[in-house]
Write a structure and sequence with these properties.
Helix content: 55-70%
Number of strands: 0
Strand content: under 5%
Number of helices: 2
Shape: elongated
Largest sheet: none
Distance between the termini: 45 Å
Amino acid sequence: MPITQPSLGLLIKNGFDVLFSGLWWTSVFPGLAIMMLVFGINLFGDFLRDELNPRLK
């Protein structure tokens, strides 16, 4: 992937270099976005398991 293409991981990596210089949000907010995305996918997977598993009904 070219370095000019933005991604959440690249934002976290670049923000980590300036984490303790007062620009903490450059690394924290993309990290929170990844955390919320993973949490949402897990909730959706649990919902699908509960709805589609015939042994649970």
